[in-house]
Structures
1.
Amino acid sequence: MSIINAPRGTRDILPAESWKWSYIIKTAGEVMKNFNFSEILIPIFEHTELFSRGVGETTDIVEKEMYTFIDRGERSITLRPEATAGVMRAAIENNLCAQGNFAKLWSWGPMFRYERPQKGRYRQFYQIDAECLGVAGSSADIEIISMSLELFRRLGLKNLEVVLNSVGCEKCRPVYREKLLNYFNAHKKDLCETCLTRLDRNPLRILDCKKENCGKISDDAPDIYESLCDGCRNHFEEVKTGLENLGFAYRINKRLVRGLDYYTKTAFEILSGDLGAQNAVCGGGRYDNLASSIGGGKIPGVGFACGLDRVVIVMEEQNCSFGKIPAPDVFIIANENNKASAQILTYKLRSAGISAVNDIAGRSFKNQMRSAGLCKYACIIDQDKNKNKNKIILKDMAEGSQIEINQDEIINYLNGKL
Ligand code: HAM
């Protein structure tokens, strides 16, 4: 029978790698705690409508990348392509922002998009996501952007660039859209096929096109800053000043529109110089109309999502530290005759909160000793030679020194040392 492989665009994160992921998630949890964000767990699948209405009918995600299926109850269900719409849905459904309350929430987990797989781009990928819901002012934007940068600082990422833009709001964007339409219509013959379809549906997305010709045309397109209303202009200025006050450099890119339709005002990305084509490690922005587009009234929001798969790639390329390689503290070495004593002692240590292993594969004494090399201590039960059944040898693997100790004293001793 043929072997069954993982589906294209998915991969197994094996133990040699998974501890690095745990380190990043633990670090993210610490940063979120420092910024007073609470963890939220939301479903991996939602009603398809949440994304078609929330992320936008004309986005690539909704048009061609969603994993959508009809479940056994005849409902259209979609594996989440991103977390923001789900977090907002949860906040609305559970009244987290009722009576003027605001909520600062974070989450992490798998997302699903049917994209062409390449380095840093997968069909199942992972995001660390943070959302601040219920705050309209620029302080929330500044908090969100600075939190993503703090996470990258703690992880030791270098060579990053913050790219910032304002995409306006429901008041000023229609005016800008009209100007863009006029401009791009005049350059219709030079646009790529995809951009021609964008022309009527979503002309702002043309600005984002990576094709050289479209890029050149977009460079000379009308500037959004000339169309921003006073509210959006002030908000943008406040975000820029806030970032400057915190000492963060950024680059303004008037062509940054991002691939999700819910953005209003702030849009940003954090790019890595060490990733190749898929160079964004983080993307985010403000989405003041997302709640109303999914039937939830007026709840402004701002957030980011950081691509965990890409952060691991960059950290490996930049030789960043992932903390200590996990290994048990104690290896209990015993021969076949002392298997039961080894099992009992191992269980005692584990119950006392000490990470311990004993041999479960019937390996030779020599091989057990070799495996113990990764641990802080080797604990040798050698009752055949030893008259006193209670005595064991405890070897400090780093120092090479060893002591004889009573079994019932070992927990106290190790607790003082580990
Ligand atoms: P996004 O830009 O679509 O935004 O994704 C955020 C990040 O997820 C990207 O910068 C990238 O690092 C990672 N990513 C996206 N697609 C893939 C993929 N196929 N393979 C690997 N990594 C990927 C959002 O998802 C928004 N929900 C962000 C947000 C939160 N905006 C406001 N709040």
2.
Amino acid sequence: MHSAYDAIKGSLIDGVGASPGVAIGPVVAVSVEEVELTDLANPIESIGASAARVSAKLKELSTQTREAGRDDAADVLNAQSLMAEDPMIADAVSEQLDAGLAPADAFDAAAEGLAALLASLPDPYLAARAADIGEVMQAIKRDLAGVDSEGLTITEPSILIAHELTAAETAGLDANLVLGFATETGGATSHVAIIARSLGVPAVVGVANLLEVAPTTACLDGGAGAFAADPTADVKQVFEQAAAARASLQLRLDEVTGLKASFGDTPIEVPANIAGTSDIAKAVEEKSDGVGLYRTEFLFLDVPKPPTEEQQFEAYKAAAEAWEETVVIRTFDIGGDKPAEYLNMDEEENPFLGIRGVRIYDLFPDLIDGQIRAALRASAFGKVSLMIPMIATVEEFLSVKSRVVAQRAKLDSENVEMGDIELGVMVEVPSVALNAHRFAEHVDFFSIGTNDLTQYTMAADRMLGSLAGLHDPLHPSVIRLCQMVAEAGNAKGIKTSVCGLAAEDPLAAVIFATVGITKLSVSANSVNLIKATLAAQDQSIRDEVQSVIARAESAQEVREQLGPHVVKP
Ligand code: PEP
Ligand code: MG
């Protein structure tokens, strides 16, 4: 938890920060009354009719939400609307009714069964849909019982507390009246969290026994995951100070928005990481310097078949047209934690060390060539670069390069317009960093993926929470590899960027800038924090960084010795 709250720890109920911001005010508890569902004659027909009504309502809410510019929330609601139409819902309930359960129980049992089925699927996207099925089925049940499900009305600015809030309830909240909310269920990546962030409403989820405590007033900090029920004046003061600090940081961030960043005399580009067209608006709003990492594999995942060249072209063109600066398209990084069912790849014991990223391309040449063509065609509409994930050897890079050359020649012969495209390599495997001076002979740029580079350097699975201490990109060995890449690149006049999560850690950003990295690609939310952080530093920090990274034996030492020297914006 944020250190500002350490002094009042005993007065807090811990939760998980879901949407940043501080809220202080009266509490309204949202209680959900049990739905009475007595008779279900013709269950398949009646459930089908209710499901269609629920689906239409969710679709309408999704459209309104999209019109309000909240694409993330709209996507969740749209997915739920499609789910409501699935006949498996009526089938599952009627199976439970046939087994002799009463209607309301049959609904609950069917919802539980379907959620468990989804949760057990290997595809993480589908597994995450388990929560949606429960929400959708509750909505159908309420519709069948004739209960209005849009009952969240509040009349004065308040903090809402609830056991849980559905995506539809959250999306429908009036952001002018809801100061913040807290729920007993949910995690940082739950839909309530996504929607709260898109509404800009502070939220804390996973707050135990919230309704039992039944506060009449509360303070919450959605960045720190802190919740205080019926706060004393002292407790309230700590939250007020946190709110003031946040407001002054926001002022500073507003000041740097749209300005070019630099570290001392060195210009530093701060582009955004995106994963699809719906991320463009936010990154443009934050005035990112283009896109440093377009995670295109998300176009290929959770769909029954891969996107066509045309669909990809439209997606890449939309990004290319949105910025004057470069959009770096990463060729699809399927495999590891991101499998695509339709490729029917063999199960592997160690998927992170298996057929992943570039290693897939020769198995599916049409897929990679189609993507390259789409990117080349998009390059007529803006500045586009391509970079290749999971490269370990120069040969792998050259093999993709020859695909790009071949596709360009083909498109040329078809008289298709194209711009120049730079071709870079992601540095995720230590072999690339160690051999960076050889790669520098062939590549147009380096982009360090610190998430994987750390995983492969420290031999610590990035998905394993218990190894988070080992999986620290500020370990001196990882920093040293980053420095080697930047030095090899700078010696050849080739740009090195960092596009892993570490780039948005202010301390790491200062270290990267010191060791010669001139581009930091971060999530849209962090663009201006990183710009402001670089601007706030006294250049004497460079000596501090060099001396600490030369001596430190652990990531912890780097953090402890350098952290206090980094000036907060
Ligand atoms: C990385 O590995 O740091 C990276 C940016 O790629 P991804 O997180 O998508 O694997
Ligand atoms: Mg990676």
3.
Amino acid sequence: MKKILTTASILASSLSFADVTRYIFEVPAATREERTYIANFGFALDEVQSDRVFISGTSYDRDLLNRSGLKFIERKYQDRWEKADVKAGTYRSYNSVVASLQNLASNHPEIASYMVLGKSFEGRDQPMLRISGVNPGQAESAKTPAILYQGCHHAREHLSVEVPLRFAEYLINNYASNESVKNLVDHREIFIAPIVNPDGFFFDYTNGISGKNWRKNRHPNSGGSMGVDLNRNYGFGWGGGGASDDPNNDTYRGPSSFSEIEIQNVRDFVKSKRHRMNSVMDFHSFSELILYPWGYQYDDISNAKDVQVYNKMAHQMASWNNYTAEQASDLYIASGVSVDYFYGELGMTAFTFELSPNSMFGGGFYLSPSKIESVFTSNLKPMLYMLEYADNPARVLTESVPSWLLNNLDQKTIKTASYEDLIEK
Ligand code: 0X9
Ligand code: ZN
């Protein structure tokens, strides 16, 4: 049962300060090949710099680094969210996200409905909102273009939940007053699934403070370890580089491709809509990157037109949010990732966005809650752009970006729930 806390009790509770100590390992690496070499030991490379990578972890990771024979420097890092950070915004809990989506649907039944991708391993909804001015039957017969925005394959990436969720709020709250938004909603079927990994997200969430640094889902592995990396479990290129076969590791790929119910559900949903769904935006954090296939190999996409579309779209979007656009494997090889499956198997246009900040030392996975709104705002144009071209992304090669998108957007107040409403006990 949801309980609203008073400000006084918030300050007296665990919300007042976050003080979570974790290790950060700095490992020298200057090329994508050197980074892939490190990734192949089973590490998630949280941050890539020109001459080093950063890995956040525990003493397990320190032991693995020692066993791997890699040189590294260990740094301690403490997240510290001050009262002002927490007061200025908040990451929503699992229940708050579900409630937010359900409230949007019940308050705007003409354009929004609550759905699920499916159920997680522990039985939670993988919540989803459908937003469209077209009713489902009509959308099917009219072949209305559909698009999927997803967040939180990785438990600790809370910002990847808030950004697509706030996009849902933006579309719904601006539908009546903004002609461009109305036009898009009336000619598209928009699916927003902000929590692909509900069990991991639920596990990682700590009310108002930064979390446990958990990445995987919560499916127990044989041998006693916990969890599969859901962004190594897709069935295209599964079992290749940058994904571990050791269940103890953070990038454990699972015992087989699509072994995880959460990813089976994504696959089955996207395939069921594929005849009119061309685009996916997959939100992660952090590093401020726009990534496109391939992830599993260094080669470029072989289809020349697709390369052009990806380049054009990635650079257009990067001009708005100032992120770095690149092929995912320029960072390091990772296999079984979502965009490779959506493009390689299904022929879709799929991007991974690594949201802010750009560094572990600027907040990493636990960016100050005071920054959530500005990260959303800086990604609004890219999200609208993907929606505009959802019917046929290749249109970007022959048509110029519509002026309503190039101009300053009408920044109507994006009404999210008030701070107190979001706090649960
Ligand atoms: O490791 C991932 O799945 C993504 N990074 S995250 O910190 N969000 O976990 C990036 C995958 C990018 N793909 C490749 N480097 N191939
Ligand atoms: Zn991620």
